[in-house]
Amino acid sequence: MSSHEPYDDEDPHHDEADMLDPADAAEEIEDDGDAAMDSGPEDDEEIMQELQLQNDSSAHFDLHKDSIFTIAQHPLHPNIVATGGSEGDDAGGIGYIFDSTPDPPPVLPASYQTNPSEPQERKSLSKIFTLEGHTDSINTLAFTLPKGQFLVSGGLDGKLRVFASSSTSAQVWKFLAEAQEVEEINWISACPNPAFENTIALGANDGSVWVYTIDYSSKDAPLQIVQSYFVHTESCTAGAWSPDGKLLATVSEDGSLYVWDVFGEAAAAGLTQGESGQTVVGLTALDQRFAVEGGLFSVAIAPSGAFLVVGGAGGAIKVVGLPRLGSEAPQTGKGGSGAASKNKGGKLAGGKAQSSSAGQAGQILADLHAQSDGIESLAFAPPPLTLLAAGSVDGSIALFDSAHRFAVRRHIKEAHEDFSVVKVEFVQNSRTGDWLLTSCGMDGVVRRWDTRGGTGIANSGFVKEWKGHRGDGEGGGVMGFVQGDGERIVTAGDDGVALVFEAPLS
Hints:
Layout: H1 14-17, H2 22-25, H3 41-52, E1 59-61, E2 68-73, E3 80-86, E4 93-99, E5 127-131, E6 138-143, E7 150-155, E8 159-165, E9 173-180, E10 185-190, E11 199-204, E12 209-214, E13 223-229, E14 236-241, E15 247-252, E16 257-261, H4 265-268, E17 279-283, E18 296-301, E19 307-312, E20 317-321, E21 364-368, E22 375-380, E23 387-392, E24 397-401, E25 407-412, E26 415-418, E27 421-426, E28 436-441, E29 446-450, E30 462-466, E31 478-482, E32 488-493, E33 498-502
Antiparallel strand pairs: 1-33, 2-3, 3-4, 4-5, 6-7, 7-8, 8-9, 10-11, 11-12, 12-13, 14-15, 15-16, 16-17, 18-19, 19-20, 20-21, 22-23, 23-24, 24-25, 27-28, 28-29, 29-30, 31-32, 32-33
């Protein structure tokens, strides 16, 4: 009888009936092994976590104790990768160089193991060299061009450190030099100008921009300042070289854009502007047509060199014209002959020297706004394609066609669900037609897209995805990746792990 049901008041033993006999309390009920019909919320969560575990990687590198913030790939030996990050709260920065080539698979199948059902723990890839000497997180890394003789690291401690390779296979490294002129280094970019090898640019939190060259033969001062600029009034958030390496574009949280004449070629052609004569383009938030409330975070220069794009807060993208510098040195193999120049000034004749002209330098050619939050990454497709990809904090990727007045070719909403898109980059491989786009986000996933469309989920162009990082807002997003010719992707994980994914293009 249940306790809430009425009982007969005339029963003299009703109080005793409520007592449990000690003998009954000692009685054991055997477990028949069946699971409980109902599982609690904790059990459901554990089951879901187990079901969601997926690791598509072929190898991993896990020596980092905390987040990996940056990753770089050797230009001649794409298997050589460098990562940099933090050693933990209130600890210094650390980085590693390692060979990302996965170990060969076992000769015998799993059924030949002593216990085939027992999962085998995969060993981490081994380090080649440790990047030491930073007292705060390594925030950015870059191998110098064209041969990757040096690896340059920049930290939140303001230090710029240079490591030199002493082997043709990039398997042996040593520390070379250090400089410190700023409080924090935000980014480093290697100059592609063949006339100025082993030259890099950096942007700092105080808005300054620095250009250094590395001269191994100079024993006393191998790290030398080429230029320094102090025009941005707030943190310099991003920078990009023109394809020929003659111009450097930088943007800032103050909403300004400057394009620097680093090596004086524009000045020689009479194309510089301003009192200092150091820039070919200078735009600030004082110009209401260019103003972006919240600042600018990304910049990319078109393969033709005819224009650039900047991305900022609220999904704003501005397209700005650039001057045309003459190609008096055709032996460099660089020129403004990309197909993206068709809609602005026509094709350039390949192989012929071109005269310099101001063209549409400094003119705002387009104002794009397809996304709702900050533009974190911008990338142009290789010629003859004319596509521009933009990755946003709102989780979407937008594709614009520069040959058709930057019309939106596609807007892939929730490309990384509701998590920020960290990086977008086109695959540089002629076998694919150069239309494949790779992206990563704070959801911990790497995805690849066919920008021709007509394939994948809801015609978004989705091709494939690779998982393995924790993601989903749990401190396991992908902070960056490198992909060489597109056949293998190596990631930098906020969870402190670098994963290697096989990405065959066939």
